[in-house]
Design a protein that fits this description.
- It is a single chain.
- By secondary structure, the protein is an alpha/beta fold.
- The protein has one domain: Rossmann fold (3-Layer(aba) Sandwich).
- It is 32% helix and 19% strand.
- It contains 7 helices and 9 strands; from the N terminus they run E-H-E-H-E-E-H-H-E-E-E-H-E-H-E-H.
- Helix 6 links the parallel strand 8 and strand 9.
- The chain starts with a strand and ends in a 5-residue tail after the last helix.
- Bound molecules: 6-phosphogluconic acid.
- The site of 6-phosphogluconic acid (6PG) has 14 residues, from loops.
- It is an enzyme of class 3 (hydrolase).
- This is 6-phosphogluconolactonase.
- Its EC number is 3.1.1.31.
- Hydrolysis of 6-phosphogluconolactone to 6-phosphogluconate.
Length: 241
């Protein structure tokens, strides 16, 4: 489980952007397309802006890239909390990505219906093969959640590769999220984590006792794919060895 640790956030972002480019080129060469699930929250915004910048935008054949979201808040796409809005603003609009290459959650539906609709859309996209993303980007909360897999929620016990709706008391809202089995079908998973406030969570997930109920990101173990961590030094500070 390769660790990429850098002194600064900037260096970490460039390393992950290079990795993203590499995975995109690999997928497009092998299968004619690159299918990525974006993460939300605040950390990846800088990554998306970097990928859309003149330093990277010309390194990828963007018309061959298809964008999904690993999780979403149950809010309108115009809401400042929307992961879709963040990615649209930082990455998708600046790159002029065509609407039919962007698969956003239908958050106008009730949560359970939105989750079911997204599961159907994902399965139809990959049909007749199982849903296998080329890359799933993930963040990490300071409570060790990832995507919207929060501690002590029912979705942690999902055994099906699908999307589920889950009410998360901690954030007092419904979240829509890939289950761990769906994430674990990916060819590659990359965590982007920076800041000292995440150091304890990084240590718990990577080196703590196995307890997925407490540390849900421990569930992320791609069965036939790679898992990489892109960390700045403060986020890696508590790791032993
Ligand atoms: O929808 C979300 O918020 C993300 O999917 C979530 O899992 C995020 O990655 C972590 O909460 C870290 O968020 P920050 O990057 O904002 O610390």
């Amino acid at each position: 489980m390769p660790l990429h640790i850098h002194p600064t956030i900037e260096a970490t972002l460039h390393d992950l952007a290079d990795y993203f480019v590499g995975k995109a080129r690999e997928a497009i060469t092998a299968r004619g397309r690159f299918v990525v699930a974006l993460s939300g929250g605040s950390s990846p915004k800088k990554l998306y802006e970097l990928l859309a910048s003149s330093s990277y935008r010309d390194q990828i054949a963007w018309p061959e890239v298809y964008f999904f979201f690993g999780d979403e808040r149950n809010v309108p796409r115009t809401d400042p909390q929307s992961n879709y809005l963040m990615a649209k603003t930082a990455l998708l609009a600046p790159l002029g990505i065509a609407d039919d290459h962007i698969f956003a959650f239908r958050t106008e539906l009730a949560p359970t219906a939105a989750a079911a609709a997204y599961t159907t859309e994902i399965n139809a996209f990959f049909s007749p093969k199982p849903a296998r993303f080329d890359l799933v980007l993930l963040g990490l909360g300071d409570n060790s959640h990832t995507a919207s897999l929060f501690p002590h929620t029912e979705v942690l016990r999902a055994t099906t590769a699908e999307v589920q709706a889950v009410f998360v008391p901690e954030v007092d809202m419904y979240r829509l999220t890939f289950t761990a089995p769906l994430i674990n079908q990916a060819r590659a998973v990359a965590f982007l984590v920076f800041g000292a406030d995440k150091a304890a969570a990084v240590r718990r997930v990577r080196q703590g006792p196995r307890n997925a109920e407490e540390f849900p990101a421990q569930l992320i173990m791609p069965s036939a794919g790679e898992r990489r961590w892109f960390l700045d030094a403060p986020a890696a500070a508590d790791l032993a060895g």
